[in-house]
Amino acid sequence: MRYILFIICLLIFASCKTDEVNNLEKGTYRGILQLQDNQELPFIFEVKNDTLLTIFNADEIITVDEITYTNDSVRIQTPVFEGYIIAKIENDSLKGSFIKPSLDRIVPFLAIKSNIRFPSKKEALKNVSGNWETLFSENSVADKYIAKGIFNQKNNKVTGTFRTLTGDYRFLEGIVDGDSLKLSAFDGAHAFLFKAKVTDSAMNGFFYSGNHWKEPFTAKLNNAFELPNEENLTFIKEGYEQFDFSFPDTRGRIVSLSDPEYNNKVVILQIMGTWCPNSLDESKFLVNYLKENPNNDLKITSIAFEVAKTREIAFHRINRLKEKIGIDYPVLLADYGNLASKVVAQKKLPMLDNFISYPTAIIIDKKGNVRKVYTGFNGPATGEKFIDFKTDFTQFVSTLLNEK
Predict the structure, then answer these.
(1) pTM for this structure?
(2) Best CA proximity match to 396, nearest among 363, 361, 360
(3) Do domains 2-113 and 130-221 have the same CATH topology?
(4) Which of 79, 129, 309, 382 has the most CB atoms at less than 10 Å from its CB?
(5) Which residues of the chain have pLDDT under 50?
(6) Exposure on the CB side of residue 142, measured as CA atoms within 13 A
(7) Superfamily (CATH H level) for 130-221
(8) How many angstroms separate the CA atoms of 303 and 131, rounded?
C-alpha cells in the first residue's frame, strides 16, 4: 500500500513536463469523493486565493491554509488531521485522490466549479425535521448500535447530525429529493455519506464512511427518544481507589498523576486522538474553557492514542494540533501504531471499566477521586445538547474548585 501511495503521488506531480506552475482558480467548487457502489460523496469548498480555501458543512467552516503546488498539481493538506488531497489541475477542475497515510486509505477525488452539493431532481415529498430513533447494522451482533438523528428541514434543504453513544457524525448537510434523504460531510478526517428512503415516520438507508465502510440503518420518528446518559457508560473499576498514569509529553518528560503539580488540584483528563474529529471538538472546547475560566487550582491534561505508524510522527501530529488550536496544557502520548485500539487503551488504563469512546473525559477532585466520566463528546453539530453540556460541565467543575 505504501508503494501505491508513492506511485500515485509521483504520477500526479510528474504529470507535467514543464516547470510552469498552475494554481487553483478562485471560486466555489463541488468536490466529490468516489465511494463503493458507485456512490458519490459531495462537499463544497471555496478557493479564496492560491494558498487559502474554506470547506463548508452546514454551519461548519473549515479554513485550509496548507496548499502547495508542483507543476500542474496541487496538494491540499487538511488542518489538524493527516488526510490530504493531491490532484492535477485541469482548467477549472481537479482530479486526484484523498489520502490518509496511517490507515493506507486512498479515495478517488475530483472537483468542478459549482455551489450545489446535491442536485435536486424533484420537490421534497417528505419533511425529516425532528428526532429520529436510529439503529445501525441491525442484523449484526458485533456492529449494531443505536443513535439519535437530529434534523431540521427548510424546503428541501436539510441540516443536522446523528448522535451516537461515542459522539456525533459531524455537521451533516443535504437535501430531501422526492422521498430520498441525502446527507454528507467532509472535514479532512472523516468522509460521511447517508442515503435513505423516507416515509412519513420512518427511513431506511445506508451509511458510507469513505470507501472502506458501508452499513445499513433504519430510523423512526420519535421526538421523545433519548440516548443513555453519557455519564453512565464508563466507570472506574472496583479495587482502583484512584486514577493514575505515566506517559511522555512532547518534550520526552514522563508525566504522572502522582506528580506534585497535580496535588490538591481539580484535574480534567481527556483521552483522545489527533485523528478524531470529536476529540478535536472537545479539545477546542477545553481550550476555550480554560481561557474563559483561568484557575490555578485546575489542571487539564490529554492522553493521546495515535494511529501514526511511528513515535516521531505521533508527536509531530500532537504538536501540530497544539499549535493549530492553541493548546498550552500537556498532551501525553500513550500509544501509537495500533490504530487507536480501544483494547490497547483499556490495557494502558486498566482502572477504566467499559472504555468505548474517543474522546472520554475524566473529572477528578482535589483529593484525587474520580467524580464524573463523560463518554464521547456531543459537539457543536448537536445544537442544544452541546449547549446543555457546556452548562453542566462549567457548573460541575466550578463546584469542585470551590471544595476544600
Answers:
(1) 0.92
(2) 363
(3) yes
(4) 382
(5) 14-18
(6) 0
(7) Quinohemoprotein amine dehydrogenase alpha subunit, domain 2 (2.40.128.120)
(8) 34
